[in-house]
Amino acid sequence: MALPSLNIRFHNTLTRQLEPFVPEQAPKVLMYNCGPTVYDFAHIGNFRAFVFADTLRRFLELAGYEVDQVMNITDVGHMTDDQAADGGGEDKMQLAARRMKEAKKSGKAEVDNPDDPYQISAYFTKAFLEDAKVLRLKIADEYPQHMPRATQHVSQMQAMIRKLIDAGHAYVASDGAVYYSVESFPEYGKLSGNTLDKIRGGAGGRVLDEHQQVKRHPADFLLWKPDATHIMKWDSPWGAGYPGWHIECSAMATTVLGRDVIDIHTGGEDNIFPHHECEIAQTCGATGHTHFARYWMHTRFLLVEGQKMSKRLGNFFTIRDLLAKGAEPAAIRYELMRSHYRSNMDFTFKGLEDATSAVRRLRQLAVDLEQIAGDAKGKLDAGHPLLMAFGEALADDLNVSGALGALFSWAKEDHKDPAADLAALRQVDHVLAMLDAPKPANDDGLATRCKAIDDARKRKDFAAADQLRKQLIDDGYEVSTNKDGTTARRKLT
Ligand SMILES: [Zn+2]
Q: What distance in angstroms lies between residue 250's CA and the mean position of ligand 1's atoms?
């Protein structure tokens, strides 16, 4: 079912304006999303960007497009200050290995061998896919075909580096590493506004580093780092080592989507510089095209209760943290998508509560319409007022709050043709993905909490078991324990 000729406009970071959205080869849309790094659990700020990508895809599908979506998994170890574009600091995978070794010592082993980076990345990839399925991200069902892992594409990255060297866009420095020469690419800085003039003028303090002496320009960034001692390494013409972070997305986007120029590229606003700036320089440098992605779309930061999320402040949450607090998956999705992607979003527990009741209202409406409609088959009309209002709001740079506003004011109206209304609501839910609750098997946080009760009972720590059980009950669950162990389910209100 396609909505009739919506006039879709998206804000393009590259041109800093709203542009009509016209894919190069309609009805196909090629979209790439910078995906998760898998040396830790993704937090809700990361998931805001992923939920945005999913909403965008679902909306384009509602509008009649066929979306070819690819989201990468960064499973190559990279440096903690990769943002500085040249890989200084400690390797993130090494850091994860150290953390997991400590966890293993204290009896909380997450993987058998914390020295094996592939076990670490497999562990967090699995966790990511579980969280993504809880939030009903379609891409999670397309793993691994549409969710390429960087470690599986090193040869494509090397081929691209070879092309860049041949084209004069990259060079081997005296330290043996391969760098991209930003001066070889006059468009460098176009996306972020960090042009070379500005970087020279001091705005690029963040690109200064210990490789200063060997690089031709301070903003030159790493493509290949020979390092025979690295935790993950591959043979290459430039010595055994590992690829720079930025090259992975250029290589995987063009390889997996199968075209040099794609329609949409998304990421968080912190990806704009240097990551996406470097992706453009690499891809255009290697392909010779003037564009890599035709539309660049970026989500703003997520705050929690008005503050920047940080582990130190104790306001740092993963999806499983929220599930463990009893949050409903659809409500988390709703909360993460409800504000406009180009404004900061403030995640609050009050908001999550409101989201929970909004989701319940929608589900109730669907049940009511089903009952009144009975066996009547709804004839779905693209001109249905709900579809029109919902689609038009989203066509305006994915204005989700406007679309939700239209939905809830429509919900309050009289439903004279309940069958048609139900059909329209189901179409709208193609984007929202909220009417059907995911199976309880996905409720990972809950399973973990039940297991914690059983573990406590096993070690005869009944006080701890009672405490854990009480917490679950306080969070609104019915808890029962029998010979098979403990189960919990949300109390029906
Ligand atoms: Zn990326």
A: 8
